[in-house]
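Hello, quick one for you while I still have it in my head. A protein chain has come my way and I'm curious about its shape. I'm sending you its amino acid sequence along with the backbone structure tokens. I'd be grateful if you could look everything over and explain what you see. Here's the protein in full, and shout if anything looks odd to you:
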Amino acid sequence: MYFFYSASGSICSFYVLLSHDLHLHIDTPVIFDDVNLNENGCYNNGDGVFVASLDGIYMFQWKITTHSGGYAGVYVEKNGKSVGMALQVRSDNGDVSHNSASDFAILRLQRGDHVYLVASLEDSFIHAGHSGFGGIYLTE
């Protein structure tokens, strides 16, 4: 579970996955629409954007999974600027049904900053059920 504190001091939690596979073009937002938890609305499952509710240091983590033979890449962006990525290159290993990559970023955010994922490779294929996005507020 990932959690954030809103400006009012109440806990704002979010943890999201994909409900269906995505086939994305480069620079297309990755919209995680399967919301397991999103108290106080930190994450918008309509556009895939997290909006910081407090100034401070946050940690975000994401995982992308593809089918064997597929590939995908994502950047994490803060207000339109890339600040990290995860890349799963093509794997034709017949013994593996899924391939995955994950990464994390620790970011200093101001209230209202936007954080989201976008495809970093043309024709990225992201598998549902095994791909997710979340984060945690660490400190001021």
About this structure: The two ends are 20 Å apart (CA to CA).
